Amino acid sequence: MQFQNILPKRRNCAVSSDISPLVNTAGEMKETGCINKLHRRCLIPNYCTSMHFQLPPLPFLILLVAKVAVICSAVSTTLHGFRGCAVREFSFVAQKPGCKGLRITTEACWGRCHTWEKPVPEPPYIQRHHRVCTYSRIRHMTARLPGCQPNISSLYHYPMALHCHCAICSTQDTECETF
């Protein structure tokens, strides 16, 4: 009985369910001797000896790239969409009359807090609920400004935020503007 291969003989073959059977001239099936469909280690020489890696379909790759792009853009716009109050690195130039300025990098409070106003029929005709992102815990820091005149102290005091929260604006540690 002579067997003919349905597919041409090849040294390497892709994983496929139609590769393993051989058919003789009478239409009888004979297995190639592959251990399993995934590995295709074959006992018949010159048939399947290894498996090729196949790339995922193009739509899958396009979808993957699109998801990565969305994640990257979400990370870059996180601060614009952030709602809350948090500690964030902040740089400013410390200045005082009679001294040169000094660039200082510290931690400060930054964010947006829930605020609202609604009209009421009695004076003052408006009910306000304004909260600002402000310090709840700070560490007092001191820097030495350069080039100060002899009768001017070179010490500059500023707060470093350890924790922030939304609270009513207090003029003791924050510039509060009224509208």
Describe the structure.
It is a single chain. This protein is mainly beta and 179 residues long. It folds into 2 domains: 1-55, no CATH class; 81-167, Cystine Knot Cytokines, subunit B (Ribbon), CATH 2.10.90. It contains 2 helices and 9 strands, in the order βββααββββββ. The longest helix has 19 residues, at 58-76. The relative contact order is 0.12. Mean pLDDT is 72; it is low at 1-53 and 72-77. Belongs to the glycoprotein hormones subunit beta family. Pfam families: Cys_knot. It comes from Cynoglossus semilaevis (Tongue sole).
Write the layout of secondary structure elements.
Blueprint: E1 3-5, E2 21-24, E3 29-31, H1 58-76, H2 78-81, E4 84-94, E5 102-112, E6 116-119, E7 126-129, E8 132-144, E9 155-167
Antiparallel strand pairs: 1-2, 2-3, 4-5, 6-7, 8-9
Short structural description:
This protein is mainly beta. The protein is built from 2 helices and 9 strands. The protein folds into 2 domains: 1-55, no CATH class; 81-167, Cystine-knot cytokines (Cystine Knot Cytokines, subunit B).
- Characterize the biggest β-sheet: 3 strands, antiparallel
Please estimate the helix content.
10-25%
What is the name of the CATH architecture of the largest domain?
Answer: Ribbon
What is CATH's topology name of the largest domain?
Cystine Knot Cytokines, subunit B
Overall morphology: flat
Strand order of the biggest β-sheet: 1-2-3
Question: In angstroms, what is the radius of gyration?
Answer: 37 Å
State the end-to-end CA separation.
Answer: 99 Å
Question: In terms of structural class, how would the helical and strand content be classed?
Answer: mainly beta
What name goes with the CATH superfamily of the largest domain?
Cystine-knot cytokines
Task: Report mean pLDDT, rounded to a whole number.
Answer: 72
